[in-house]
Amino acid sequence: MASLIFKLLFLQLVLVLIQHAYSGSIIRSLPGFEGPLPFELETGYIGVGEAEEDQMFYYFVKSESNPIEDPLLVWLTGGPGCSSFSGLVYENGPLAFKVETYNGSVPTLVSTTYSWTKVANIIYLDQPVGTGFSYSRNPLADIPSDTGSAKRVNEFLRNWLAKHPEYFSNPFYVAGNSYSGKVIPAIVQEISNGNYICCKPQINLQGYVIGNPVTYYDHDKDSRIPFAHGMGLISDELFETYRYLLSNYWANNKSVRRALKVVKGSKGKWERCDYAVHCKKDIISSIPYHMNNSIKGYRSLVISGDHDMTIPFVGTQAWISSLNYSVIDKWRPWMVLDQVAGYTKTYANKMTFATVKGGGHTLEYKPEECSIMFKRWISGQPL
Questions:
Q1: What digits encode the pLDDT tens for the residues 253-309?
Q2: Annotated catalytic residue, options 63, 178, 192, 304
Q3: Residues facing 121 on adjacent strands
Q4: Domain containing 342 — which CATH number?
Q5: Does any domain span residue 277?
Q6: pTM for the whole structure
Q7: Residue 21 is assigned to a structural domain of this protein
């Protein structure tokens, strides 16, 4: 009996080792960054769909605090067609580009102080397929869609967790911004239904975070005129394009692709946002998904930069109000170092809405404030 138990335990260990062997590549250093990386980075592909034809590329950064217990997030950038690498280096990741005159060499990367990975594990996922370094082995693959993306991300996550079983019990959140705000509530519903109906591994789903989210275009666009009426124009400096070009120079460098273990020949020119990636926009409004997720009791944080005219916060307030949940924490300022960093309100459906003072369409305009907000919210503290 003892011998049988030993064999079973040994077999289980071997299976775990095999899963880890195929889960991705540990990256110790990156071109453009001086010295070894001060955090744990893994990159790789997870196959989804029929015969795993769709190969979805990810960057996984372990929490710098307590990765075994800290929350696990998947981060989706908008577009559709924008790489999650944009989130990693411009918004809430542990790396950023040093803005300097480009001289033809690999752009310089530096550490950040505001990374959400200080308190959470984050999977930065390139989706839908065709975005970033994700690709399809089938040249005749169907055009992705909003609802299809929700199913693919759910499948990706279950396959990823099967190869990373040490994260089964971590509290899990879906997060992202801009156009992904359309898809994230559908992904949450897809994961929730999968947990209830059929699928293993179970995902310890707790909620979601969306920044300046596209929700319902009629509400979003109709809010622009009253917003513009009450606000001054944003300075040209706020829309500077140059830093974005550095990511294109970096990701198209051959040494970078080798370091990231990108499959050779799977991708032509890398674009931070490739708007040639076609996606059927078949979710007209994500409001019904928000309602369903609220009924199931999931937490949510909705962030709005108060200088964003693409998705003005007044439009976001309007659809949140349409859910008709009572307010349990009235409109008030939230503070950083005794300074007003924005305003917030919390509803009975566990949804917290927060503006970021001086914030734009993405988190990059106020990364320190957004980091503090996230750390408070994810730990259950009032903003």
A1: 999 999 999 999 998 899 999 888 888 999 999 999 999 999 999 999 999 999 887
A2: 178
A3: 72
A4: 3.40.50.1820
A5: yes
A6: 0.88
A7: no
